[in-house]
Every structure is written in structure tokens, then in C-alpha cells.
Amino acid sequence: MAERPVPVPVERLGFEMPPEFATADEERAHRKERLAEALRLLGALGYEDGVAGHLSARDPEHEDCYWVNPFGRPFAAVAPADLLLVDGDGRVLEGERRVNGLAFAAHAAVHRARPAAVAVVRTQGPYGRALAALGELLAPITQEACAFYEDHALLDEYTGVEDADRTARALGPYKALILRNRGLLTVGDSVDAAVWWFVAAERAAQVQLIAGAAGKPVLIDHHGALATRERFGTDLAAWANYQPLRLRAAPPVASTP
């Protein structure tokens, strides 16, 4: 009889845990790198529409200031040096470009309401917008969708102009918000987690729309959905799931005038 394989030690799996930093400067550089990388990835995935779409990350030292992509610069072209440091009132403190003040206001409101949230993602994907047009929440019809079970909300109104404070109130303590007739917003305790939740919500919306078009999806029951969320719905799980995906990001780009 063949010998039973010996379990591989965790340290040999090459699985990286979220990093820790000795200084705020190191953490700032890491967040900016991850933010620029995430923008390039979301652009490659098609989650960009004209000048719409912003990602923001709280500065680790000045917690009422946030790094965000500049207005009008394509996601694929964003390097860390292109990011703007903007205060909660929308004033650019570092950077040579403009910020979309109206769009950034929602980010600032969410950051103020959620001090533990490091990053906010508010960009465009076809399936999230389609679900938002229906005014529906994500249903617990797959294991992946259960990550959002009772942990996302619907802002069930459309006024033509996004009300920043109303958006933050509607999000509440949850990881994701569906803005009716507009799309998705997600948050996380790292850039990686916030971006993964956006991608995961977009994919869950796609499956829900396909399943609904084919027939009547079978819902996972409350206890099953809750147990699944407790296992797969944490920001650490999101961070881990994002690591393979982030390898798809476009190569680093040099900042241009």
C-alpha cells in the first residue's frame, strides 16, 4: 500500500497574508500601488464607462484624506503617481489633475460614515447596472452570492443626481450597495477586498440574471446562506480571493503629463 501523502506545511504554499507595515509611508505606497493596479484590472475587465468610475483609498496617516483616480484619465493608464490626494471637501491636496467633485462626494461620505473602511469602489459593470435597473437585491442562489446575504442593501430611488449622504446612509454597515438605475458600490478594509466585492457582486448579478431568464432559481435557505456568508463573506476571504485575479492587472505604467 502506498504511503499516505504528508500534508504540505502552510508556509510552503506560497499564500501571502495581508501585509503589515512599519511606517505610514510604506503603507501609503502600498495602497497607492494597489489602487492603481486595481484600476488597470477593472479597466481590463470592462468596468469603465467614459469618465465614470472611481476608486478611493483612505490615507493611512491623514484619515480624513483619500487617494482617488483623476477625472478623465483611462483606468488602463493610471500609475500610482497619477493618483490624487483629496480631502473630505473635495479639495486636491496632491496631484496635478482634477477630481470629479460630484462623484467623489459619495466616496467621501461613505468614508466618513465607515471609518474602518479603507477603500470604496463605485464604477460601471453591465450586470450590476442591469440588476439595479430591476431594483433587485442579490439573491442567495449560489455559494458565491451568499457572501452578500443580508450584507448588502438597495437604495431604491433615482433622482438624477447621486445624493452623497443618502448613499452613505443606505449602505449602512454593509459591504455593498445597489443603487437603483445606477449600479454597484462596494467597500472593504483593504483595496483588494473592496475590489473583489465589486467583481464578485457583478458576477453574482450576471448569474442571477441568467438563471432568472432560464427559469425560477432555487434559493439557498436562510441557515445555509448565513453559514456560507460567515465562511466566505469576510474581508479576509475577499482579500485572498482577489490575489489570483490581481495577477491579471495590466503591467505598471509610467506617469505621463
TrEMBL record:
Give the UniProt entry's GO cellular component terms.
cytoskeleton
SUPFAM superfamilies, A to Z: AraD/HMP-PK domain-like
* Gene Ontology molecular function: actin filament binding
- Can you tell which superkingdom this protein's organism belongs to? Bacteria
Every copy of the Class II aldolase/adducin N-terminal domain together lies at 33-209
Q: Which PANTHER family match?
A: ADDUCIN, PROTEIN HU-LI TAI SHAO
Q: Which family does it belong to?
A: Belongs to the aldolase class II family.
Protein name, please? Class II aldolase/adducin family protein
Q: Which organism is it from?
A: Streptomyces subrutilus
